[in-house]
User: Fold these one by one.
Assistant:
Number 1:
Amino acid sequence: MCLDFTRRTVAACLFVALSFAPLSALAQSDPQPDPLPSWNEGTTKAAILNFVAEAVREGGPDFVPVPERIATFDNDGTLWSEQPVYFQAEFAFDRVRALAPQHPEWATEEPFRTILTGDRSALANLGGDAFVDLLAATHAGMTVADFQGEVRRWLATARHPRFDRPYDELIYQPMLELLAHLRANGFKTYIVSGGGLDFIRTYAEATYGIPPEQVIGSTVVTEFRLEGETPTIIRLPQVDFVDDGPGKAVAIQRVIGRRPVFAAGNSDGDLQMLQWTTMRAAPAFGLIVHHTDAVREWAYDNPSVIGHLQEALKQAPERGWTVVDMKTDWKVIYPFEMK
Amino acid sequence: MCLDFTRRTVAACLFVALSFAPLSALAQSDPQPDPLPSWNEGTTKAAILNFVAEAVREGGPDFVPVPERIATFDNDGTLWSEQPVYFQAEFAFDRVRALAPQHPEWATEEPFRTILTGDRSALANLGGDAFVDLLAATHAGMTVADFQGEVRRWLATARHPRFDRPYDELIYQPMLELLAHLRANGFKTYIVSGGGLDFIRTYAEATYGIPPEQVIGSTVVTEFRLEGETPTIIRLPQVDFVDDGPGKAVAIQRVIGRRPVFAAGNSDGDLQMLQWTTMRAAPAFGLIVHHTDAVREWAYDNPSVIGHLQEALKQAPERGWTVVDMKTDWKVIYPFEMK
């Protein structure tokens, strides 16, 4: 802003600069505030702060030019919780319940029958075909705008079974602070998730401060249609791209076109993103969120479906990835614990 | 920058503000410099300047908030020339000539035989199969990094048959000024091209000031591979997505997730991008570059292959799209004319 030499901006800068000159003078005697107050002191927090400090230290050996400051974050289990099932699956199940009256045949058709019985253990065993049927019934055959309207309505009304709170309140306070600290230091923060692109975009900006163009996710095939004088983008019941595992490295290259210097994940689905980000000479940081807190959140790393974390955890030491121990590294898990 | 309340930034703002205070005083008496000096005065230039002025006028009826200031530009024929054939095709032909010694069979195999004869008229008649064979032989089977290295070497050595200049000098000076003017007013400028994503990214930042993450293009299927300790992204000989026609609207939604408020193109391949951008209540601007200058560039809008512009031109009046008449609206075509 201050480098934009228009009369108006210079005037504004002069005003702002003068207004905060006393504040800046004060700041000289005050210590800098802790950018990660919800992180306990320790090697994890120190490693993060040191990487960012070195990345912005001009002339230093690990300096990263601003355009290269790309940070990518998995979403489920890394920025918000993912138990007892992925929150987007809860959305799909709720959609089935809402649409059931118009589909009497679902009382006998799988996977709808099982979903309508509400038998959670049975739900965990639904196969791949069930996923596609569910996608077609709950995520397709409408415009992107209409779909996002449904997601918004769901986020405003649905409540998590364990915490009895809206799903978008089950986000990790320490990760919000990390996102903000990276952005304050010139990093561009991206979500790279196996979850649905249009689903995440409905709340990512308000919840994480991540705009739609910085969300990468799984997609269905979409189609442009001009209906009369109204152009629309329709979601079709067909999987386009699954942004998971090696797909995350592929999507990062396709959408961003730069290798990130910071990547954070929590499962083996993030393994290749961590490898793509860190396995090179340039300075880079790999972070794994390890779910170790059964009391405040969940403790898991080897379930059948969600959050399988074995290979990435095994490679962490040799690759120099930093592993967050939720139980000991995080003072609080969710923002509402601070209220 | 000036709104970032850190000691260092405020100090910097204060310095900058004070340094340019005299300059700003001067500016009060001086008229603002023309942001589009290579555009002749007239309705086209006036329409562009007026749209941008209204988009940034807070409180005005056509004000556009900064995050919504998305401008999308086609590349071939809109930002640089595309005759006598798309420049990326010239790259492919040159690659075939360079690789021919290792492929004696190409002396009899099409499309390689025709390419090696250099018969341009015959080249124009190569069909879709030829395109796929050419893609496989010249654009695939290597890492993205290696491919971009080839493109860089080609741009540094190849010369356009008519102008005997590097291809990246055949860019439109008036469009460079338009891109800069939009960015100076808070617009995020994107390329949305039927051309290859990795091809365009090799020169878009240096040539147009458009970073890799703001380039949308056609793609081949890519694959992540960990070769020993080296992660790579390999380009496979298989078309993934063709970013043309309705595909442009689809890709804009998928990659950006916002509808642009400004779109510029030059062929019917840009029709749906123009419709998606402008057919709504919100303020928006559609621009068509009409190639009308056979002396300084080329005059065409209805060829068999390149730059077919009929339907978009027909819809322009009813849709309120602004049509650039190259011959009368542009003082110069290429930057080198100014030297």
Number 2:
Amino acid sequence: MGRSSRQISLPFIKIDRRARRPLYEQLYEGIRAAILNGVLRPNDRLPATRLIAEETGVSRNIVVIAFEQLVMEGYVQSRSGSGSFVAAEIPARMEKAVRDKRGSDKKEIPRDPSRRLSGHFVQTLEHVVSPRNTVREESLPFQTGQPAFDVFPFAVWSKLAARVYRYLDFQHLGYEDAAGHYPLREVIADHLRVNRGVQCDADRILIVSGTQQALVLCAQLLLAPGDRYWMDDPGYVNARAVFTLFGGEPCPVPVTSEGMDIDFAIRHYPDARLAFITPSHQNPVGGTLPLAQRLRLLAWARDHRLWLIEDDYDSELRYRGKPIPSLQGLDTHGNVIYIGTFSKVLFPALRVAYMVLPDQEIFQAFKSLKALNDRQTALTDQLILTDFIKEGYFHRHLRKMRGIYNSRLQCLLNELDTHLSDFLSFTDPSAGMHLAAHFRQPVDEARLLQLAADKGLVLPSLREYTFGSYDRPGVLLGYAGFPEEKIRKAVRALAVCFRQIS
Amino acid sequence: MGRSSRQISLPFIKIDRRARRPLYEQLYEGIRAAILNGVLRPNDRLPATRLIAEETGVSRNIVVIAFEQLVMEGYVQSRSGSGSFVAAEIPARMEKAVRDKRGSDKKEIPRDPSRRLSGHFVQTLEHVVSPRNTVREESLPFQTGQPAFDVFPFAVWSKLAARVYRYLDFQHLGYEDAAGHYPLREVIADHLRVNRGVQCDADRILIVSGTQQALVLCAQLLLAPGDRYWMDDPGYVNARAVFTLFGGEPCPVPVTSEGMDIDFAIRHYPDARLAFITPSHQNPVGGTLPLAQRLRLLAWARDHRLWLIEDDYDSELRYRGKPIPSLQGLDTHGNVIYIGTFSKVLFPALRVAYMVLPDQEIFQAFKSLKALNDRQTALTDQLILTDFIKEGYFHRHLRKMRGIYNSRLQCLLNELDTHLSDFLSFTDPSAGMHLAAHFRQPVDEARLLQLAADKGLVLPSLREYTFGSYDRPGVLLGYAGFPEEKIRKAVRALAVCFRQIS
């Protein structure tokens, strides 16, 4: 008998159920690699899909998908009635690609040592911390900025996506208005007027690819190099990174239990041109700016030509009390640029945020710059989102999230009271997706974070949000993304860490 | 009998089948508007869906979808057995939203007249032309940059999208690596090595939100304010806009039938720090840079620390001759930044392009800056695209497009030969999606464009691409997006225009 009778099994295929790559792809890659490196040879008969499914523990459908791919690419031949075989000849082109790949793997073009990046942004880039997108196999407490993916309405979102793709026509494949899909701007305007007290209409709303891009546009249009800007300390790191990148000089403003200390800022930095502020819910320690402070800030802005960037990043997530209307809604002189996002209430990978600009002239300047930055935000996500809001799913989802997050917050507060009140001081934030806790006594923070990490806990330190003096050390405890059972276990594990270091 | 017996029909509902809004939405809006403005009154009985379908000429399913929406939002009540009625009470909140909308429509916050945009980019913004995204109801010949939407594989794309959304899990909802989805970077690396002779691996590929963003990152990292850069004249307007925005000084380089005149550039602007170049297919007039010129350019770049930005925007669309390997593939000193995009070969609304950086240090700097600009490119489109390439659809689509575009190009060339050879000179471009034609004798260009517009023709002028002297006037004739019959009619109509002005 020839080669085709070789009895083979596939012990070399490693399936990792926790890996990010789909199972069919792992299987496909495993078999393909085996063919290319000679473990499987031309004309070898492959085991039946059923057997492979048993051997690797994946469903037979998955095996079939992997096989179809291998057949399509010419690695495997299916001979009717007698099963699947490694192809007698592997496609020459593929072999070449593989050879090239081997040859070029990690190989870099030798670089002229005198060659340096010379752009204007190179020097400043060294001084800013780029946003670190947390990429993890699983979400770990007490990671922040992590919505409750476990209750996200996948089914609805997929259904709307399918409809959008089914009715996609040539108009939606071409370039759109750089300001974004108009119907989306209309539903956002409705939402903001009713729920956030924002003064707006669709014509002044600019769709952007996330809050980060909104901040870039603000920096480009509102900040000249050397301009000073007010920045909460601790405050939103990514905002500071952007404003610094574009040449702004940050002025650290302390944070009280009511948010940014406006009086301090006015006293110390009267010449600032811009203020970055999160009045609904100070980022990261919480606190809501009271009406009197808002009016004082607006009056100062009016009289001193101060731009106010209101980042209303998670204002939809308020669990008690009336939602606080936006700062923008109180503005009578067009000094507020309002930014909102869907990353927090839906999911971060959805790169859709929006800005409300005070008038058409400013809107047009922002729109031109948006076009220069990336022409437009990806369209299909905008179409899906429009339907998601229009058909009522968005508000339903918000209501549901509020209920779930509030329960998770209460659970966290109870557990903290029971297990960590000796070590941490905290107050009920009534809003948002995380809680800020300060250490009651000095701790070896590096050691604490390491101990926590060993127990599978992510403990974002307030140090990372601070750029002036780190005089109120503490940590953030994200709760929104974690079921209550997980929160309970995590708090108890954290309590063990604290006892170990004290 | 009460109000509910009022016999109503819906003559006020206007359905426009050519409008961009879905039919169900038009119907929904029509009925909602009628309720809000009092044409339909509380408790009015609505006609049966079947009757509305007949009256408006849309399918009954569409009517049902519109009704479901109205019921969900509380405008319509469905009473089992007796049909649908206008709600006795319209939801107060909705009414309020509508009132607010009426009140605030177009209203802007009064602006302090002394208030000016003060950012660094405001002055330069006045000197650059922002990309104009052409938004049209239908595509008109001879618009450029318009792929053949009529043969785009919607069904496949939708199927892949549905699968991506079905298997979306929490890992794909969170933040990803700022450099992009790794499996996509892998398939792009394979594609570029095999088809474009690019030296690369996935670790040096950065996914960006369109070529525009790639250019922004280049400007930010490679160009200091005041730096001179080589720019084809005529050349790609959006590249010039970005480099100018970030303070670069453009040096116009004439274009020969073989692309950028490298010798001219070296002679006239030896101190330039950066060159924007489209060597595979000069944008917009065509022409391919010969090997000798490529080597001369690379040697100059190596010896004079010149960055080369290679925009390989439509190199996959070559109809005759061997595809020309990229400039980057010949580079031995890491002076080339390679940019490619899916906008041209798939569709512009897909905001996915990629850069190949020469080494890890430069890659990391670009990645940090990408994160600062918008954290990451929208993920779901990346997932769909990965499958589209991996499963062979991309290459199949490319093959198909090449055949179709070549036929359309031949048709255009034949028609031009027959009808316009007295007026226009042109050569077979052998590649791309449009053809550049120069006027044989001076024409009143403004009048020509107006006459063409009157006949429903879009005639992009070379003037728009020119920034030095406009000494070889002409127009671009996009053909990729138009069936041959449309091309034939358009050429004949254009011939009439030429005869009218000569």
